[in-house]
Amino acid sequence: MESATVVMYPSPGRGHLVSMVELGKLILNHHPFVSLVILITPPPFETGPTEKYIKTVSATIPSITFHHFPIIAIPPGFSSDIIRLNFAIHELYNPIFHNTLVAITEKSAIKAVILDFFTNAAFQVSKNHDLPTYYFYTGGASGLCSFLHLPTIDNITSGSIKDQNLVFDIPAVPPIHSSHFPAGFVDKNKPAYKDFINTARTMAKSTGIIANTFVGFEKRAVDALRDGKCTPEGQTPPTYFIGPLIADDNEVDPSENECLKWLNSQPIKSVVFLSFGSVGVFKKRQLKEIAIGLERSKQRFLWVVRSPPDDERVSNSGGNKELDIDAIFPEGFIARTRDMGLVVKNWAPQLAILGHESVGGFVSHCGWNSTLEAVVNGVPMVAWPLYAEQKMNRVYLVEEMKVALALDIEPDGFVTAMAVEEKVKELMEGEEGRIVREQVLEMSRRAKAATADGGSSRVEFKILCDSWTTM
């Protein structure tokens, strides 16, 4: 019997890689005789740490092979814009991608190629090989509605979105103001804008789209996608909602981890967890405001803090250098809050924390992986978006799914201590918080049902995989 391989091609970002690996694990659970090859492009920018993660997966799951592309020279004058660079780097790697596919097909039958939207440049290569080519959209159905609708928005707007004070009506999602669009979507004169438009059009021509969400969480968006309402320029390909896919924290020892040991001593549902993704950082001034707001709120808290950038500009690069707490927080903050809070430097086992019975709320940057982790564990959120598509995610989470409260953010992105204090207290004790707490518990129940035997996500995943075995 000829061996079968699925080739997966994520972008270098840690969140995208982890989601793709979790999809790979799911494939192997249902089709253990399939081999997975995950292609790794050397990142030309900071992505968050991935080496340890890749080594762990390689050691524990032999059926997953990480194929590392060689480092190639970046041409002089190449774009330094991170969004454009994320798309363009894969254009440079297309010849290597082609050769890799040829080498794999000499040993095994490729049943599917699964791309990330940032690896869109590879679509034409895989189609030239006549290979079924899918996209794994690491966000949810609402985000996918907005993304696939971009070409339509492009057609109906004469200028750049950034220059217009507009509210856009996108099928099946709440109205989105122009200020909530990601940076790459708003300037028609930037190459990255064309990348996103081209990717949206290409995704609509693919063999299928796989989304990390579940029907019960985003029913209105799921229906719109299946009815083709988001792609009036053409038909939407088959879309498979197979989530929630979240990475586990098996490497964390609860008896040794500082955060989990501290949580063991706290009352049930009493702690607010604050964490802002693998690359989110704040200025010193903002960190001080958060500290003041938390102290005034009188709520128990567990806060993951990264060092602010040296130049005091907020960047999307993780602050992994040593954190000098005394130089950042108000004088005496740690001593005064010793009985009510714990500050952790740089990293904490987020999934294990969200699953702990003492955690009752989550101040989140609205990254999709973090969102799913919170929903699965029934933890309500305060939505504090920082970059990328997170402002749009906030709209979905607050207005559509109703599992989060919106934090008051000033036009320049600053959040006052008063805003932190009020929203944290509301989440944990208020009436609006009660409604959100009840809603997220219902969504947690639906998430577990979707991934159980016979659940919607498992049924859709079986349909997807069965299409490969008949090829």
General description of the model:
The protein has 19 helices and 15 strands. It has helices at 14-30, 51-60, 82-92, 94-105, 123-128, 141-148, 150-156, 191-203, 219-226, 258-263, 284-297, 325-328, 333-336, 350-354, 368-376, 390-400, 417-429, 431-450, 456-469; strands at residues 4-9, 34-40, 64-68, 109-115, 133-137, 167-168, 176-177, 208-211, 239-241, 271-275, 300-305, 341-345, 359-364, 381-383, 404-406. The strands form three sheets. The chain has a seven-stranded parallel sheet, with helices on both faces. The chain has a six-stranded parallel sheet with strand order 12-11-10-13-14-15, with helices on both faces. Strands 6-7 form a two-stranded antiparallel ribbon. The two termini are 14 Å apart.
Brief sketch in words of this structure:
Belongs to the UDP-glycosyltransferase family. It is an enzyme of class 2 (transferase). The chain is α/β, with parallel strands linked by helices and 471 residues long.
Shape: globular
Major sheet attributes: 7 strands, parallel
In terms of structural class, how would the helical and strand content be classed? alpha/beta
CATH class of the largest domain: Alpha Beta
Summarize the amount of helix as a percent range.
Answer: 40-55%
Poorly predicted tracts of residues? 312-319
- Order of strands side by side in the largest beta sheet? 3-2-1-4-5-8-9
Number of helices: 19
CATH topology of the largest domain: Rossmann fold
Number of domain modules: 2
What is the annotated CATH architecture of the largest domain? Answer: 3-Layer(aba) Sandwich
